[in-house]
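Mods, move this if it's the wrong board.
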Amino acid sequence: MENKKGVYKRRDFLQDMVKAGTAGLLVGPVMRNLQPASYTVQQIIDLIIAEVPGGKLPETVDTIKSGSGDQVVTGIVTTMFATVRVIEEAARRKANFIIAHEPTFYNHTDDLNWVQDNQVVKEKQNLLEKHQIAIWRFHDYWHRMKPDGILYGVLQKMEWLEYSPKGEPSFRVPEQSVGEIVYQLKTNLGIPHLRVIGNLTTPCSRIALMPGAGGGQKQVDFLVTSEADLLIVGESSEWETPEYVRDARSFGKAVTMIILGHSFSEEPGMEYLVQWLKPKVPEIPISHVASGEAFMWL
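Not the wrong board. Structure tokens:
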């Protein structure tokens, strides 16, 4: 404000400064708080690992497979396998960070030279580069969580947490037939088909649950030590656990085996990751995209 001589009055200057200062105090912090927090891929990874008992592993397959740890995350998609369809769906959802449980490039360590001059690998890399998508494998750490993140997700979806509240892989359910449990598995996990070794009318109650591919020795050892009458696994080499169960039954042992399929058996755990992670980074859109099954059944 100017006086008659065009000189800015000291009193008016002080009043204006007070008004401006008050506005800054009231508006500045509020506006800053309204700004969504941003995270890089590496910051999200570090946040997750900080929750894992034992912390960072010296050796692990849980590494970044595509993109950079420095890129700012616009959205997260969880899945079992980062398939071409999952990558394209993530891009459609404007999510540039995929957290996958299993390998992206068809071998355990994601060695890009596992097979020399593989055009499918190169095309997949080009697709990821086109959409600027980072992929991080979340396998070892999720299984080390207490309780195991994959197992907990399966128990939750099967509505079995009341029988295994601490996420233990061996537990008792009310006695029912194998056929009834088959129906529950297909319904709750959305599995169109299962493989069973045993009789559907056989009653069972003690379950040994091993999602994924634990290997024949671990599966048989767990079946024996848990004294389970029903072993449920993701996948198994046909010449190992299935043959053991078949012979055990021939010797009169009351044991049955159900094979879910690798993806179907662990997908609930990656779906549960959305529920687990959202409260930690509420500003970032997080969703699950099921990778589904590779096979067509005839």
